[in-house]
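Lab meeting, item 3. Inverse folding demo.
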């Protein structure tokens, strides 16, 4: 029997919105998801126009997300959306995700999960209560060689991890373009819409998630310095953070959006007692391995990669060696993991551990806890080492 497509609704992401288009491309790359409805803009007319441009039926291009949830629930289960993808500015993540879970819809939410730790705790608790799949799109974990790096660390190939260096430099906010009407800059630098953190929330959370994903360790304490280099900017545009990890590793995280001529320079280096590794997002199909007693190794990604590539990494590859895979493919791997969870929940599939791998609401909540701790540390003149809230212990002891 031909597998059915999962029906996606979208909130935000109208025509001209960057991240909405990315989500749609990624979601539909494997032909397993179709966009069937949406509230694409807070402006009802723009929402309708966006829906028409995207091929959504006029009656399912809704005026608001509230209307979408109410009217979709009135449709037969074989017609209504299966899940909702939230691609709005940060301040709307919480109310939309909360309403979606309460209505019985699984959720894909762009990062950061929400603006405050209290909101994160509420969403985590509600997701546990409803047992609905909830994905937060820390999409860099979808790269094949990031999965291979994780396997190398967790299998002990590098020995005990001592040092983690993760950075994410960009240059697009080196000037005050938010005052020139640049829409993305306007809301990302405004605490009312973005939340507590600027660069640390926007891209620093990606770096923190990558460090935790690759090492398998939690960031437990931070010592942070946040700066707003552009005069008059309300949120940080540069962050330098010392890290302590749950298994004793030490780390450095640098995230900045004022590094002129930097594009999207996310990278990670991990050093253990037996070896090290290095990966750069702008060269995602190459992983460098470092050893104390032999030359460096270059690992390449592809469906016909060497058999030593981790099973999860091979499962994440789509093209043969030498055919570049990048941002959209990694993003699509996150959606593929999420739809595997939907299929398992519906009894239409058995879990495949190589594909059932996507960032959950708990990882999203940890990102919010990380930002909260970094901001507290940066504001403090006394206790610079600030603990990151351990949400797992809270879940075990409600």
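The presenter then showed the designed sequence:
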């Amino acid at each position: 029997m031909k597998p059915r497509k999962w029906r996606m609704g979208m909130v935000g992401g109208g025509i001209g919105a960057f991240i909405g288009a990315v989500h749609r491309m990624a979601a539909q790359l494997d032909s397993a998801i179709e966009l069937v409805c949406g509230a694409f803009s807070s402006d009802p007319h723009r929402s309708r126009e966006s829906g028409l441009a995207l091929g959504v039926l006029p009656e399912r291009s809704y005026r608001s997300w509230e209307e979408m949830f109410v009217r979709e629930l009135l449709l037969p289960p074989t017609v209504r959306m299966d899940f909702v993808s939230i691609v709005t500015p940060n301040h709307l993540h919480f109310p939309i995700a909360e309403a979606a879970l309460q209505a019985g819809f699984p959720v894909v939410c762009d990062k950061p999960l929400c603006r405050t730790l209290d909101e994160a705790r509420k969403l985590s608790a509600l997701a546990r209560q409803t047992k609905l799949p909830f994905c937060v799109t820390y999409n860099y974990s979808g790269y094949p060689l990031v999965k291979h790096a994780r396997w190398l660390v967790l299998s002990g190939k590098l020995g005990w991890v001592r040092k983690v260096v993760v950075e994410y430099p960009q240059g697009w906010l080196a000037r005050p373009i938010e005052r020139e009407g640049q829409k993305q800059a306007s809301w990302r630098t405004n605490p009312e819409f973005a939340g507590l953190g600027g660069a640390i929330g926007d891209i620093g959370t990606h770096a923190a998630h990558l460090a935790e994903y690759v090492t398998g360790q939690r960031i437990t304490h931070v010592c942070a310095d946040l700066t707003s280099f552009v005069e008059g900017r309300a949120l940080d545009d540069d962050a330098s953070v010392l890290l302590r990890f749950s298994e004793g590793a030490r780390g450095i995280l640098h995230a900045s959006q004022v590094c002129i001529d930097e594009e999207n320079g996310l990278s990670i280096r991990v050093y253990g007692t037996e070896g090290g590794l290095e990966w750069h997002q702008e060269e995602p199909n190459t992983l460098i391995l470092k050893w104390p007693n032999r030359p460096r190794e270059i690992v390449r990604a592809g469906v016909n990669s060497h058999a030593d590539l981790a099973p999860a990494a091979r499962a994440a590859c789509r093209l043969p060696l030498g055919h570049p895979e990048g941002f959209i493919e990694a993003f699509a791997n996150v959606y593929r993991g999420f739809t595997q969870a939907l299929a398992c929940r519906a009894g239409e599939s058995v879990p495949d551990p190589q594909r059932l791998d996507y960032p959950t609401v708990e990882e999203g909540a940890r990102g919010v806890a990380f930002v909260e701790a970094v901001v507290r540390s940066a504001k403090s003149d006394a206790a610079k080492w600030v603990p990151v809230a351990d949400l797992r212990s809270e879940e075990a002891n409600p």
